[in-house]
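Dear colleague,

Thank you for sharing your sequence with our group. We've completed the structure prediction you requested, and as agreed, I am returning the results in plain text so they can be pasted directly into your records. Please verify that the sequence below matches your submission; if there's any discrepancy, let me know and we will rerun it promptly.
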Amino acid sequence: MASILLVVHPERPAAWQLASTTRQWWERQGRVVIEVRRAEAGVSFTGSEDLEFAISLGGDGTMLRTVELVLAKRVPVLGVNLGRMGYLTAVEPAGIERSFERMLVGDYLVEERMGLDVEVAGSAPGRFTALNDVSVERAGHGHTIHVAVEIAGRPFLTYIADGILVSTPTGSTAHNLSARGPVVSPKLQAMVLTPVSPHMLFDRSLVLEPEEKVRLTVVDERAAAAVIDGARVIELALGDSVLCSPAAEPARLISFGVRDFHSALRHRFGLTDS
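Please find the predicted structure tokens below.
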């Protein structure tokens, strides 16, 4: 029997209420609903669940956790916006049941977004997926870190900075934007390398082809950490590295009609011609 994965923001009562409505609606359609409170630790899917859709009830952070859970299973994700920004979400709560009706009959689009495969090597090895970004950044106050950057297997530059950020086009409007990196169309296949508060003359971002894998290596003993999509934090030691490359599978986001990225950008930032 087909299942629906429901990922709910754990600290918003409005999300809990909407989760109850969502569960009842899909159960009336004969679906099994699997509910997760925003991707709790240890939750995974082994392949035994026949997932049809994943539904995120929260903001962009909840959406990121939902995408991470189902990326390998190629499951399309609907984002319902209960947050502030809502770049990744497709509908507001008032339109949720109409959206479900359209999903049920196949009246929706699936927009593919590039993700990042993140491989941490060294004292705490692991492999992760990011939809927005990964950073190597200082883990304490009052100091910079030294990070050696390799691009496509060749040494590029050692940065002295608060951090170094590698973002996807989707993530270009997140941490990358606050670090004065470029806004990139989410339809582009690229990685954006942006230094965060660099203490050096060269402070520009680089927009790279997906094939140009980026390795970030800690080359001093000051406390540092890898931060993946702003949520997962991994402590790094001298010599530890983070390798960023395009994820094997894209994120699949449900939309109803063409998503107007530029209009969303104008709206979120209150941009006008005056």
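Summary note from our side: The two ends are 55 Å apart (CA to CA).

Kind regards,
the structure core
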